Protein 1
Amino acid sequence: MKIRHVFALAALLVGVEVSSATVLDFENLSEGHHLSDAPYGGITWGTSTDDSFNGSVGSFVASKITAGYAMASSGTTYLYNAWGVNRLSFTFDSGPTTFNGAYFAQVQGPLAWSIATKIRFSDDLGDQSSWLNLTEAPQYLSANFVGATTIYVEHDGGGPNEYTMDDVRFAEPVPEPEMLPALGVGVFAVCRRRRAPRN
């Protein structure tokens, strides 16, 4: 094996660790399913309390109601933040992950009682995305957080404000830091063996 092939193989192996994307579209969830009830899609879904609305505890809830309320980014199912609570979170069960982003939209029509106007992500490492101004049509909010374990979804506050979320995108867990030196040592050993004089 030529040296350049060894490095190409090493790069490919590392790339596989970080680029295998997953998209959760929630299509197999039933109407009204509370995601905080049990882990789903390799994620534990949290709850949040809105002190401005009788201390109501809300979570992400699946819905298929599109006529007169909201639009899904793909398929017919999306999530909404019950009771309009702010700073809902979700945690990757496998540990540090590359989190790409998700689609968001405003609720609409006669069933919409309090409407969020903008949204952003943050994570447990202190990273923040830009604010996304919401419209009734779903839009993608990019985060691209590397090594995040818990993601927070924040709306513009000022009381309970509902939004919808769909097509959550993330990658497989990032390589553990201790794996990278080991990979480097392996590549170095192969290269050294390749360059050693033969008897």
Protein 2
Amino acid sequence: MGHSGEQAPQARRAARRRTEAPTDIVPRRLRSVIRASRSRLARRSGDGRPKILVIEHDLATRETLALMLRYYGYEVTAAGDGREATSLVTRMTPDLVVMDWRTPGLSGFSLCLALRRRSPMMPIVVVTASDEVFDGDQPVNAWLQKPIDPPRLNQIIHDELAPLVLSS
């Protein structure tokens, strides 16, 4: 009797693990880090999930970023280039943007200026593979070098969203 009661929760956990994310996209270690911070975000963000717009031209990177951010508890919309992103921003107002600096359609700088015109206080986090150094003159809040360190990206997003969460 005791064994069947224990097997049911284990079977449910195993089924849930199989449906959460394909292992070929997000490694097991990354999934565990993401799950660990989901509860912290839920406590911190209140009732609404922060909306993040991901702008990345590389499909695999865009899908991985979106999946990772969803696991962290964010509502994610993705765009493949700068023109698609500016079109999306006319229909939705993200709480934060995570973008590649080198996007087709608009340069990173032009895209940031377009986003700032639409929403001057919206945080913009740049992820880039280039060796370009960002200084105080760039219209971004934070930048992160690729390959992306998920806990570091999540911490940057938490830090940038903290004023929004505290003011609501």
Protein 3
Amino acid sequence: MPPTAKQVVAHWSDREDESSLAVDWEEAHERCRRCAYRARLEKCHIVPASLGGTATPDNLVLLCSRCHREAPNHSNLQYMWQWLRATCVPLYDTYWTVRGWEEFEVMFGRKPFATFADAGEDSPASDYRSLLAAEFDQTIIHFGEGRRNPATIACMIAELEQKLATRLGITLPDPPATRARTGPWGI
């Protein structure tokens, strides 16, 4: 019989320090260990079964389906814990929004709203809220996902910037020319 989610959590709560992880052990049976969203969790093999990993609490971690797809598939279990600590966020329910801001930087080659700070503009928070609320109506959550993906969030930020720039008479820089991303070896 496969272990329950609570058995997986109980195993790791005695062995891993929660202080640098996204979720307290008390809520780890209902929130993803990486993104901290409350979701239907999957039992993710730390060492994949095809590399000799077992379906036992010492080789499982609870992740949402999105994080499960991004998890490392390696025979050394320490990489899973290193990945969880390196990529989690300290506040519940913010992981995918943070990823959206990072996606904006990749897509537009600059930090969101940097142009406004450079121009000395500080628009009231109420402006941001009302414009952002309108922008939510222009997007959807992809079927089966449960939240907007990082690329959609990046586009929402870009639209919000454009509306604020128009209102304030600021010219935004053009996005960088479309280019293939290269890896550390120039490939």
